[in-house]
């Protein structure tokens, strides 16, 4: 009996020590490591988005990306992902179609997701309508269809994230997000700050959830003062931990200017600035000078989820 209690004691202690490990330690890195995912959103939205992001991954410092399955140029980037099986490609789970004239419909069509569409059959334009109207069951069915379509196209999906934070809008949608990660055995982009920003309780997180230390996204004020200045400060001040920078690398073309018309924030010129910085030698030098190691969702998936 005494041996049994000793065994249980050390088992408990082992679990406690494991629980106290930082995410970087669980991944096999020292506690002092600065790990960073440089992640391009919105692939599939437009050809210019695909071409810019491919350039940023092949020649620049971007090492991860996610695909918008309902969008018109999804097939192009899905084919690229299939031909590059060791790339880091997730699904940018999409519930809204935010541009003025450039729109897309749900993968399941308009009959199986009536709370997800506007009077023209497009995904809703803004997050407020999604928060107010979207039925969680219809959301889950649509998002499963998006993931399944990507898988059927040969994309080795490494993670899930949420376009414009739509799945943080309320607890029901957040639970859909987490269920999808568990169903497909994929990490999902999570941070405590995201929950706080959307007014969600931190109690919605479980001990088993993989939560990044910081997720950085430039805001309109950063664009006004120069995105290169913002990203430089992020890299110079990065602390030990596991972090992600979310950005939108695209070529400034007539196509993209038309798609993002009347949207200065996150529009075509913004996306070209992202591309310029993350294909620059300055960015590569900042990563080296600040001892930042690049990490992928593929590595997180394969080490901690599968």
How does this structure look, described?
Keywords: Carbohydrate metabolism, Hydrolase, Magnesium, Metal-binding. It comes from Namhaeicola litoreus. This is Polysaccharide deacetylase family protein. InterPro entries: Glyco_hydro/deAcase_b/a-brl, YdjC-like. With 306 residues, the protein is an alpha/beta fold. The protein has a single domain (26-305), classed as Glycoside hydrolase/deacetylase (TIM Barrel, Alpha-Beta Barrel). The chain contains 14 helices and 7 strands. Strands 1, 2, 3, 4, 5, 6 and 7 form a 7-stranded parallel sheet that branches. The longest helix has 19 residues, at 2-20. The model is unreliable at 5-18 (pLDDT under 50).
Core attributes:
about 300 residues, alpha/beta, TIM Barrel, seven-stranded parallel sheet, 14 helices, about 45% helix
Brief sketch in words of this structure:
This protein has 306 residues and is of the alpha/beta class. The chain has 14 helices and seven strands.
Total beta-strand segments: 7
Assembly category: single chain
Report the major sheet: 7 strands, parallel
Q: Mind telling me the CATH superfamily name?
A: Glycoside hydrolase/deacetylase
CATH class: Alpha Beta
Please trace the helix and strand order, writing H or E for each element: HHEHEHEHHEHHEHHEHHHEH
Named at the architecture level, the CATH assignment is: Alpha-Beta Barrel
What's the average pLDDT? 94
Which structural class best describes the helix and strand composition?
alpha/beta
Rg (CA only): 20 Å
- Strand proportion: 5-15%
Uncertain stretches of 5 or more adjacent residues: 5-18
Helicity range: 40-55%
Distance between the termini: 36 Å
Shape: globular
- How large is the count of helical segments? 14
Number of domains: 1
Q: What do we call the CATH topology?
A: TIM Barrel
